[in-house]
Amino acid sequence: MKQGFITKGIVLTLTAMLMSSLVWAQQDKASRPSQPQTATGKVGAATITINYSSPSVKGRKVFGDLVPFDKVWRAGANEATIFETDKAIKIDGKSLPAGKYSLYAQPGEKEWTFFFNSEVGQWGIKRTGETTKDTAKDVLSVKAKPAKSASLTEKLAYEVTPKGFVLKWENTEIPVSIK
Asked: Which keywords annotate this record (predicted)?
């Protein structure tokens, strides 16, 4: 009888641990400080969708400080930003096949590089603070020129326009042309 009681206790403990881990894993992403956002639009015949987590400025200096220059960044917060196109497109004259890609950026004071990477679904950074971008899986990289925005953009935002997409945050806008 004592052994049956112990066995039931172990089973109940393991079940409780499993249930609590499932609840933790299913935590509502909308309750995160950097909430998930989606930008969608048409560029020619292609539908472009960008899924990202949107951090806030919160009085901080973003580019060149929070997001260092000349270091690859996950182009958002939390999981790596996802760029999806339902048709093949051309970015800076280079072909990008239809599909889903992780979008990374390397900010610079005068020029940015955007990377479209075939690995998707990963967390955006490692415990060391470096991005999870595997250079061997880069499909395409393009250059873009940052510009000063007319007003402060508190929360990181992407906008898909008929000409491409624009990353907006703090007092900076970076347009990327798509055809």
From this structure: Signal
Higher pLDDT, 92 or 50: 50
User: 129 lies in a domain?
Assistant: yes
Alpha-carbon span 134 to 144, nearest angstrom:
21
DSSP letters, 70-125, are TS-B-SSSSBPEEEEESS-EEETTEEE-SEEEEEEEE--SS-EEEEEES--S-BSB
- Is the predicted pLDDT of residue 19 greater than 70, yes or no? no
Rounded mean pLDDT, 20-27 = 49
Q: Burial level of 64, CB count in 10 A (0-12/13-18/19+)?
A: middle
Angle at 50 between CA 46 and CA 55, to 5 degrees: 160
Q: What does the pLDDT look like over 30-86, one tens digit per residue?
A: 676 788 999 999 999 999 999 999 999 999 999 999 999 999 999 999 999 999 999
In a domain, 14, yes or no: no
Give every CB contact of residue 5 below 8 A, 6+ residues apart in sequence.
none
Helix (DSSP H) and strand (DSSP E) numbers for the chain = 1, 10
Q: Which two tokens stand for residue 39?
A: 């930008």
Task: Report how many domains make up the chain.
Answer: 1
Residue 25 above 90 pLDDT? Answer: no
> Where in the sequence is the domain holding 48, given as residue range(s)?
32-177
Question: Is residue 172 assigned to a domain?
Answer: yes
